[in-house]
Amino acid sequence: MSRLPLKENLKKFTGIESCPVRNIIARFSGKWSMLILCVLAENGATRFNEIGKALPDISPKVLAETLRNLESDGLISRTLYAEIPPRVEYALTDLGNSLMPVIRSLISWAIDNYDAIAGRK
User: Fold this and answer.
1) Between vectors from CA 85 to CA 82 and to CA 91, what angle results, nearest 5°?
2) Nearest by Cα to 26 from 60, 71, 65, 73
């Protein structure tokens, strides 16, 4: 059985290294990344433990790793205050803020369609 040639409009997804869907959206589309971005969007600068309290089912290890990833991607900033004890706050960057309308739209769609999708299981 021979394969049909790939349609021209689908070729944009085949570039593993250059596909925006694979390489950019995957960075913030994980379960925790979007929720952390939402917490920061709603609360402004927020401390590590406060984010953990807002998302009680995330482990400290996964929270720290996710925050590091979001920071390295430029979506959030980390500010260390020279106090005793040290205080660290996380906040959305301009890039992170520019992503929030898209995430809010997705949240709205999820709320509107939750029953229809959850009812299929």
Assistant:
1) 60
2) 73
Contact 39, 56 (CB under 8 A): no
Pairing mode of beta strands 46-47, 76-81? unpaired
DSSP 46-108: EEHHHHHHHSTTS-HHHHHHHHHHHHHTTSEEEEEE--SS-EEEEEE-HHHHHHHHHHHHHHH
Q: What amino acid occupies position 85?
A: P
Q: Supply the pTM of this predicted model.
A: 0.82
CA distance 9 to 74: 30
Residue whose tokens read 């925006």 = 20
CA distance 106 to 112: 10
pLDDT, tens only, 53-102: 999 999 999 999 999 999 999 999 999 999 898 899 999 999 999 999 99
